[in-house]
Amino acid sequence: MYQQMIFVNLATDDVEASKRFFTALGYTINPQFSTDDCACVVISDTIIAMLLSRQRYADFTKKEIADSTKTSETLICLSAESRASVDELVDKAIAAGGTAAGETQDQGFMYGRAFDDLDGHTWEVMWMDPAAVQG
User: Fold this and answer.
1) Which residues face 115 on adjacent strands?
2) Cα distances (angstroms) measured from residue 101 to each of 72, 81, 93, 123
3) With contact defined as beta carbons under 8 Å apart, do 7 and 48 qualify?
4) Which of 25, 61, 90, 93 is least buried, going by the fewest C-beta atoms within 10 A?
């Protein structure tokens, strides 16, 4: 059965630093689709982050490339298996050089935190009680 995938393309100032950052979070780099100008970060079987040098990113758009340390161009939200998994991933991101973003969101049935990666892209990590989704 076909499973749709998402490829999130993000501009980075330093491909090698971004590789180190995302591998510190526990993700892998797919060397088949990585070059000096691009890192293919495998987040899951269906989620891939393509971290492109600004020069390579510019090959795909005529628009000005946002400075994500000053402008929010996207909010990327990843699901997590548990509240503890949310904390683990965000804490790893901060330890690897990312920064905490926003306030912790705790609705009881839903819990989330966020971090900015080395280039200022905001990644939210969210857990939701499966019972709340069914009900």
Assistant:
1) 100, 123
2) 12, 20, 11, 8
3) yes
4) 61
Residue matched to tokens 């990843």: 78
Q: Residues in the chain with pLDDT < 50? A: none
Is residue 85 a contact partner of residue 113, using CB atoms and an 8 Å limit?
A: no
Q: Can you say whether residue 97 is alpha, beta or left, with left for phi > 0 and alpha for psi between -120 and 50 degrees?
A: left
Instruction: State the amino acid at position 14 in one-letter form.
Output: D
Q: How far apart are CA 35 and CA 59, in angstroms?
A: 15
Helix (H/G/I), strand (E/B), else coil: 35: strand
Smallest CA-to-CA distance from 124 within 107, 106, 108, 100 is with: 100
